[in-house]
Amino acid sequence: MNRRWDRRVGSAARPSQTWNKKDKIGLKSMNNVATKMVVVPDIAGPGQEVMLDDRALAISEMSERFDVTLRTLRFYEEKGLLNPVRKGARRFYGPRDVSRMRVILQAKKIGLTLAEIRRVIKLVEGNGKREDQFKELQEICLAQQEILVEQKQMLDEQIAEVGQILTAFDELIG
After folding, report:
1. Vertex 107, ends 49 and 69: CA angle to 5°?
2. What are phi and psi of 145, to 5 degrees?
């Protein structure tokens, strides 16, 4: 099953970009030569080979790029997750904030709390070995997956219970 993946914001991508869900490593073929392409999740922060655009983005550009409201950007700034440069009353977001926003959005998408997102940002911006960062991020994601599986089981039970109630009402009503 192919899932579209956009490295910019972690959502729907241009049709030419795909990520093969059944493989941890996407395989692409060019001229009948298979090459391995590792897809680094946004939550892992920028790769060392990623060239970041060093142009500062105005708050409206940042909002448009990530499809979030201005209030959302201000909220993340208020919580200390983003640190735009202020010029007068205007905010400008540099490459570090753009990178952080990618991390924030993917972490939020998988259900991490603000405290956990802070931990992830501290981790990916730390000076530790990249492999150690990946291992710790993997542990964070595994723990989150366990929580989500438990929540899904509870939801499945609730759905079944509602189904039984609706069946009982159908029988009572006729």
Report:
1. 100
2. -60, -40
State pLDDT tens for residues 72-91.
999 999 999 999 999 999 99
Q: 141 and 110 in contact (C-beta within 8 Å)?
A: yes
Q: Residue 47: which of 80, 7, 105 has the closest Cα?
A: 7
* H/E segment holding residue 163: helix 130-173
Q: For 90, phi and psi rounded to 5 degrees?
A: -95, 150
The answer to whether residues 71 and 157 belong to one domain is yes
pTM above 0.90, yes or no: no
DSSP secondary structure of 36-71: EE----GGG---TTPPPP---EEHHHHHHHHT--HH
Give me the residues paired with residue 30 across strands.
33
Full residue range of the structural domain in which residue 4 is found: 1-39
Q: How confident is the model at residue 121 (pLDDT cuts 50, 70, 90)?
A: very high
* Angle CA 145–150–155, to nearest 5: 120
Q: Do 35 and 46 reside in the same domain of the chain?
A: no
* Domain total in the chain: 2
**In a shared domain, residues 47 and 125:** yes
